[in-house]
Amino acid sequence: MSENCFHCGQDIEKERISFDEKIFCCNGCKSVYEILNINDLGNFYELNKRSGIRPNDDNISQFDYLDTKEIFDKVTDFSEGNTSLVTFKIPVIHCSSCIWLLESLHTLNPNINYSQVNFTRKNVQISFNHNELKLSELAKFLSNLGYKPVINLETAEKKEEFLDKTLVIKLAIAGFAFGNGMFFSYPEYAGELMGTTDFWMDKYKPLFRFLMFLLATPVVFYSASDYFKSAWFGLKNKIVNIDVPIVLGILMLYGRSIYETLTNYGAGYFDTLCGLLFFMLLGKLFQKRTYSALSYDRDYKSFYPIAVTKVDFNGKQDNILLSDLKIGDRIMVRNQEIIPVDAVLINGEGNIDNSFITGESASIPKKAGDKIFAGGKQIGSALELEVIKTVNQSYLTQLWNKEAFKKYETGLDNLTNEISKYFTFIILGITLIAGIYWGRIDFEKMFQVVAAILIIACPCALALSAPFTFGHVMRILGRNKFYVKDTLTIEKISKIDTLVFDKTGTITHNKKSNINFDGTEISDFDLKNIKSLLKNSNHPLSKSLYEFVEVNDEYFPIEHFKEIPGKGYEAEVRGNSYKIGSAKLVGQESKNLETAVYISRNDEFLGKYIFKNEYRDDLKSLFKTLYEYKIHILSGDNSSEEIKLKSMIPNVAGMAFNQSPEDKLNYIKHLQDQHQKVAMFGDGLNDAGALKQSNVGIAVADDTNSFTPSSDVIMSGKKLVDFVKYLRFCKDAMKIVKITFAISFMYNIIGLGFAVTGHMSPLFAAILMPISSISVVAFTSVVTWWRSTKYFKISN
Asked: Where would I find the Putative metal-binding domain in this sequence (predicted)?
C-alpha cells in the first residue's frame, strides 16, 4: 500500500523520511513542515489535504543575477529607502492553502513586510527590506518553500495582461453617471408611479434635468469616444463598420434628450443613455480581458519548442531545450542553423547570414570574441558560442512575432467583415422603415424604437466568434506540442487535402539507423578528422554517423568549409581535404539502390557508410488514418526504400527521390498548380523552400534547432503519429465558429423582432448586447475544450 507525503501529498516512491510522527517524501518537504510549525503556521495543513507543493530540487543559484542593479531595477515595481516591491509569477499556486501561506510570509521572515496574492494571474506581490534581504535571497526563499518564481523578460516587462486602465476610467465615469442619473430621475418617475406631483419635486425638475445633462455629456464625449473614433475612421476609409449604428443611436438619444430638456417637453433619456454606455463598456472590458488572457497564454516565450546542442568544456554534446539554456553556457551551431540566442563566438569561422533579420542576403564574417545576434544563420563550419542572453531576452523572441511573418486576418475574418458591412446597411434600412412607421403612430416612442434597433443589432458577438475560438484552439494545440504561428494557419489546416512528407529526419528517426561500413579500414587519424567534420553538419545522416563513429572526442579546427546543396560538403582538417556526401561528390557511382554516405580524403575514396533507416513507431497506422488525403513522399536519397514505403503507405499518390531543395519546392508548386491544398512536413532547414511554398509548412522537430520563418507550424517529432488528431481538431474549430455565427444571428433576429415592434427599451438592448457577447465567448470556450478532450489529454 503506497503512502503519501504529509506535506505535498505525493506518493512516496523512493525516500521515506519519518519526522514528528509523520512521513515525508524528501528532506525539502520535511524542512518546509518544520519551518511552518516553528512559526505557528500549522493551520496550513488544515486548509487543504493536499496543500503543499514539493520543493524543486533544481539549482537555485540561478537567481544570483537578480542582485545586479540593472536587473533589480527592471524586475522590481518600486524601490525607495529600505523598502522594495516586487511581483513574482508563481504558476504552482493552486488552492486556498497556497494563498494563505504566501500571504503569511511576513511571519516566516521578519524582512518581509507583507505579501498579497492574485490567484487569477498566479502572481504574488511582496514588500521587503532590500537592505536586509536580497532579491535573489527572496526568490530562493520562495523556491525552498516550493513556490519557485518564474522570472523572464515577459514577467519583467510587467505587461498588464487583463486591465486597460483608460477603459476602466471610462467605465467608472459611465457607471457614476448612470447611478446618479437614476437618482436625479426619481422626481420624474415618482410622479408617474404615484399619479400625483409633489410641489417641490416639480419645482426642481429643470435643475435635475440640467444635472442629468451635465452627467451624460462626459459619458457621451469621453466614455463613448472609442465608438466615435472607430466609426469616423471607417467612414473616412469608405467603410461602414459595426460602430456606425451604435454612434447613430447614441447621438439620437443625446440630441432628443437635449431637445426635450430645452423645450420642457420631458426628461429625455440621459439616464438610459448613461446606462446604455455603461453596459456596452462593461462588455468591451470583458472582451479585452479575455483577448489579453488568450494572447498571454499563446505567447511564443512560454512554449516555443526549440532545442539546442549544449557543449561542455570537454567537448561533450548534449541536446537540451532552448528554454533551459543559461547565460554562460556554450552551444554549438552547425552549418545552415539559425543562431537561437545572442552570444559571443568562441571557436570557429563565423560567416553569418542576417537576411532573416535585415532582409539583405549578404553574409558577415565573424572571428573569435565577436558578438553574434540571435536570428543570424551560420554558413560554413560549426561554431562554438557562449550565451550572453537567454532566449527570453534575445532578438529571436521578436522574430516569431515579426510583422512580415504574421498574418492577422483569416478568411473568416474577411467573411465577418463582409457580413458586418452588409449587416450594417440592412440594419440602417430597418431602422429607417421602423422610424417612419413609429413616427406616424407614436412620435415619442419612435426614438426609443430606433435607439433599441441600433443598439441590439450590433454584431459584436459575430465579430468575437472566430478570434475567441481560434485563440483557445491555438492554446490547446500548443499544450500538445503543436505550435501554430497564427490563426490563419488553423483555417488553412482545415482545408488541406494533400500531405507531402520529407523522408529523412521526418518520417524516419534522426538517430536510429542501422549503419554498416563498406571500404578499406579507416585510421584513427582520419576518423578523428571525419568526426570533427561531421560535427559541423545538421543533416540527419551526418548526425547519425557522428553518433556511430567511435573515437575519442577530440575535435580539430575546420578550414574552408563548403557545402554543395543536395550533395554534401567538403573542408580541410589538419592539412587534409575531405569530402562527405553523395557518390557523385566523391567521384563514385552508386551501383545499388541504397542510402549511403561516401567519404574521400585528398580525392582518394576511403569507403561508404550504408544506412538502413528506422521509421517512426506506428507510422503505418498514421497513414491508415489519413486515407482521405493524397499522400506524397519526397527524399534527397535514392529509391532504395521505395518498396518498403509503398507497403507502409498503400494509398501513396506519388514518390520522388534524389530531390534537391529546389526540386522539392517545384514538386509542391506542381501540386498547387493542380489546385491542391498542400501541407509539407520537413525538418525546418533543409526543406525551407518547400515549407515556404506549401499552403501549410510543418517543421518536425526532435532535438534540433528547428526555428525557421518558412514554417507555419512546429510540431514534436514524437507527435507525428498523432497528426490526424490535430487535423480533425482544426476542422472541428471551423465548425464551432460557424455554429457561433448562427447563434449570433439568432440573437440579432430575436432582438430585432422585439425592438421593431416596440417591446424593447434602449437600456434593455444595451444590457442584452454584452450578454450576447459573453454567452458566445462562453459557448466557444466550453465547446472547444469539450471537443479537445476527444483528441487530447487536457491538463490545467
From this structure: 4-75
